[in-house]
Amino acid sequence: MPNSSAIEESKVPLLDDLCSTIQSNNNEDGHDCHDLVQRVWFESKKLWHIVGPAIFFRATNFSMILITQIFAGHLGDLELAAISLAYNVIIGFDFGLLLGMASALETLCGQAFGAQKHYMLGVYLQRSWIILFLCCVLILPLFLYTSPILKFMGQPSNVADLTGVVAMWVIPLHFCLGFLFPLQRFLQCQLKTGVIAWVSLVVLVVHVIISWLFVYVFKLGVIGTAATLSFSWWLLGLGLLFYTLFGGCPLTWNGFSIEAFSGLWEFTKLSAASGVMICLENWYYRILILITGSLNNAEIDLDALSIWSATVYCI
Questions:
Q1: Which of 46, 83, 214, 293 is the most buried (most CB within 10 A)?
Q2: Does the keyword Ribosomal protein apply (predicted)?
Q3: How far is CA 142 from each of CA 23, 145, 152, 277, rounded to the nearest angstrom?
Q4: Would the CA dihedral through 206, 210, 216, 222 be positive or negative?
Q5: How far is CA 282 from CA 86, 97, 98, 131, 176, in A?
Q6: Which stretch of DSSP H or E encloses residue 274?
Q7: 3-state class of 312 per DSSP?
């Protein structure tokens, strides 16, 4: 039989091999963990490069509405109630429908961009403009007959009448939404979110200045307050259009094309389905504002609820 010293000597290389294997596995696990952290950090930076400017764009949009309501509050309770009802209910209805219809552009543009058919992004953009413009024309009576519609829904007469005046002055904003939303989706699908964010920042600063001039310098009252938002949103849309037309999208924008008038029915069905989906998500709290207008102290209640909802959406 082998002696004990020989047995002990034979165990040494086995223990050394085991220790080396364990240490090697630990090093590999540490290396994998380090690689995982690096991959998560890299993907997070790529994600925030896209969603960060997009979040900022939405925040500036709602900030302009909130700033407009703040300036309207300096005019009086009735003016603030009218502005709030027009923006949160009338424009809110419009906003949800047109935003949803424009969202169909994301699917088509993403597919075309991935398939290397870059010129089709410009064609899809023009088709979306055509369809949303026609939709804006169909919705136009909502703005023209805002006052009788609100009275039929039980809103106070003085609030409904002034809201009808405001609705007439935000008709340019109504058509701007049908122009701006597809353009924003068109640029976002090409990861040009930084341009959208910078233009939004400039327009937000201009909006504050214009609102101050219209309310405190020119003394235009509720009409001037309503006009500022239409002006600012069109400034935002024209800024993005200027970037698109003058070299910002050389691969995807090849000018206006007659091809945009083909395939409109299929595009309309896709846009309508997307519009209904977004509307159902966007309209539920608008109903609360309409119900609030039926309370005894409607002006103050409308002011409080609309400012709260605008602040929450802005945040």
A1: 83
A2: no
A3: 74, 6, 13, 21
A4: negative
A5: 15, 9, 11, 21, 19
A6: helix 264-282
A7: helix
Q: Are 228 and 214 in contact (CB under 8 A)?
A: yes
Q: What is the pLDDT of residue 314?
A: 52
How many angstroms from the chain centroid is the CA of residue 102?
A: 11
Cα separation of 94 and 179, whole Å?
A: 13
Give the helix/strand (H/E) hosting 197: helix 193-212
Beta strands in the chain (DSSP E): none
Q: Tens digits of per-residue pLDDT, 13-51?
A: 544 554 555 455 555 555 566 677 778 788 887 778 778
In sign, the C-alpha dihedral spanning 181, 187, 189, 195 is negative
Strand, coil or helix: 233: helix
At 37, which amino acid appears?
V
Give me 301's structure tokens. Answer: 């209640």
| N-term to C-term CA, the chain | 83
Q: Do 280 and 117 contact (CB within 8 A), yes or no? A: no
Identify the three-state secondary structure at position 253: coil
Pair 129, 182: CB distance under 8 Å: yes
Query: Looking at residue 258, what DSSP letter applies?
Result: G
Give every residue of the chain whose pLDDT is below 70, as ranges: 1-34, 281-282, 284-285, 293-296, 298-299, 301, 303, 306-307, 309-315
- CA–CA distance, 34 with 58 (Å, rounded to integer): 36
Report the distance separating Cα 264 and Cα 124, nearest Å. Answer: 10
Amino acid identity for residue 279 in this structure: C
- pTM score: 0.81
